[in-house]
Structure formats: structure tokens, C-alpha cells
Amino acid sequence: MHISHSSEDDNLKRLLSFSIADLQEKCGPFNVEENERAKELVFERTRYVYNDALEYFDNNFLSQMTSLGISLMQEDDDATV
């Protein structure tokens, strides 16, 4: 998304927060500042929402979401050992 003005900042922040919440619900909790894979998925989902194509996101990024979920489970297991 090449946006060169600030008039949509609030809307984009709202869309980003929705994307974080949705992906955390599907994949597990993550810190978007520390997890590059999660950050990329948040940006991609937000791009799909912004372009009114959200219905395609889950199918197009299923393998990446599954991979993120597995890595988050492994991190959680490592933290509890």
C-alpha cells in the first residue's frame, strides 16, 4: 500500500489491530514487534482488508499461518521446559 498522506492513519491502525487480534486467535499469541513472520502476516492481512479482498486471505496464506502456529507452539513448549 503506497499511501503518501496521513488522513488514513487512524483507519490503518484500526485495521492493523484487527489483523493482530485475528491472527493471534488463529495462530496463538505473539509479539508483533519481535516475530517477523507474524508481522508479515499482519501486514498482508491488513492489505487484503484495505483492498476489500479479505475473503481470499485465509486460503492464500494458510500454509504461512499454519507454520506460524506451529512455531509459536514450539516456542511455548521451549519456554515451559
Structure description:
- The chain has 81 residues and is mainly alpha-helical.
- The protein has four helices and no strands.
- The protein has helices spanning 9-27, 36-50, 57-60, 62-80.
- The mean pLDDT is 91.
How do the SSEs run, as a string of H and E? HHHH
Separation, N- and C-terminal Cα atoms: 41 Å
The low-confidence runs, each spanning 5 or more residues with pLDDT under 50, are: none
Count the DSSP helices. Answer: 4
Short description:
The protein has four helices and no strands. It is mainly α and 81 residues long.
Q: What topology emerges from the helices and strands here?
A:
Layout: H1 9-27, H2 36-50, H3 57-60, H4 62-80
Helix pairs in contact: 1-2
Task: For the structure shown, list the relevant keywords.
81 residues, 4 helices, single chain, mainly alpha
